[in-house]
Amino acid sequence: MNFTRRNFLKIAALTGATTVIMNNLSVLANTTDAPSAGSNEPLPHISAGGLIRPPGALPEKAFLATCISCGVCANVCHVMKYDAIAFAGLEDIKNYGTPYIKDMRDFPCSLCMECPKHCPTGALQKVENENVAMGMALIDLGLCFGWNGDVCLSCSKACPLGAKVFDFYNGEWGNQPFINEACVGCGLCVKHCPLGGSAIKVVTKKQYQNVKASYAGEFRKLLAMSNEERYNIVYSQNIPNIMERGRLVEREYR
Amino acid sequence: MNASTDKDSEELRVMSYESKEKEDEKMRRWEDEKKTNPNFSTSQVPDFKSSSEFKTQDSKLKVFLKPSRLRRIVLFSITVLFLLQFLRIKILVGGPTASLAFWSINLINVFAFLESFAASKSITMQALTGVLPVVGIYLIFGRAFCGWCCPLDFLFEMVGKLRVKSSELRVRDKKKIKIPALQTRNFRRRNQFIGYGIVAVLLAVSAILGVPFFTRYLSHLTNFFMVFNSSIFLALDLPVSKTVLIYSGAAILSLLLLEYVVPRTWCKILCPVGITYGLFNKVSLLKLRFKEGKCGECNLCEEVCYMDVKITHSLDQPGLRDTNCIYCGRCAEGCGTKGKLVSMSLKLRVRS
Questions:
Q1: Structural domains in chain A?
Q2: What does pTM read for this prediction?
Q3: ipTM at complex level
Q4: Torsion angles phi and psi, residue A108, rounded to 5
């Protein structure tokens, strides 16, 4: 083969293309989405109950009908440097290609409200920050520092709605935070929780209605518990758990 | 050096061979017509010599920027503007299905709008404000989106080149793969109606399922965008679902395969996006116009046309209004009269 410029360019382009493709293939080979390793999730017995939609989304059925998977919301989110929105994969064929907040631990929604402003079909509607209904954050009471003898308050400091959302039950067991129904589910608290793997989980509003009774029961039981019982639980179960998590899941802020 | 000259001469030989074949065919056609039509005058003899020369040289259209080149420049600059969004520059955000221009103007594909409307059975203010500028644009430019902005048009052209090359290597005479059912005259005439049928069926499916079915799962525009978007997000280590990339990549590859087997069938018959834009061709300001001049009836314009537009059938009319025309300008380039006959122009219709 004669070594002309054209041939050289061809070879260079081919090599580049192959490396890129091979890289992509090696990444694609492990299709499991790594960050949400099952056992490290807070509240493992409660599932998220669906996809957490971007802020201002229509009710689920109307949203599926109106959204055309054009990608404006995801790219607007990228341009705004939040990168929260991803597209649902084929695992859930009904929701394929629709936007949702995938990884709240690293990329939560910051309620900048640019995506509903620019949604071309109106599947995301402009609403006030307080009226957003993306989901509902639930604190894992067994993992939260505030419920286990510490003063942390990271979640309430991160919350864009602040005092409206948080109820504090201050006692000798710490500064116990509880998230009430004013929560919009943006997930900023999930990101800012200092516990390895986060102690907060966001579920959809619908799922919250299902688990509301059991979750509130657990919460009331804990409040009504005598000090000795509480002491046993905290020191025999919760604190070893928390230490274990800190060792297992290294917290990396982006 | 020696090898390259060899290759060039080889190409030339193939081209002359091809044009000779075509010439023979034309001659035969002309003889047939002469036999059947008694009024056929010899002045209508096409200029065979110039037509066969056309293939061996690049093009005879004496314009600084030929449409084929200008088309690529437009597509390339649009792609670059879209890629700038990954550097967080707010000029053109989104994908080809719907986008946000200059952070203020919403643009939404007309068919996607229709499908979303059919699925949700309601209309929102945002969708309306998004679709109006697009309707405005296509009232001026007709189906030019397909030829000038659609990324698949470019990919299809590349596949076409690959097709010619590989068949050159393998077989001496370039025989097109022809599916007999697609080649019959009746089918061609009905293409348009099949297209409208597909549009109607897809809208009905969307209305029944309650999801914009085509735009979400099948659309070439959505899938192309998903391939780009997911691979770039994957490279930037941002959250993406990998199955989206796999599915959309497979969809685009299968479209390219379809193109390799039956060229431009997607554009001509199947693509509902193009068919809805084709309706704008009937009223658009831009249209194919014929200049003053004598048509040599060499049929070169129809041969180079991707979309099987019957250009010579409307020579006596002021302009061509075919729903299949994508204004790629190949007919003007390929015209045997050196671009003297066919031209594209914006023209206001004057009712008389």
A1: 48-133 (3.30.70), 135-254 (3.30.70.20)
A2: 0.78
A3: 0.80
A4: -80, 165
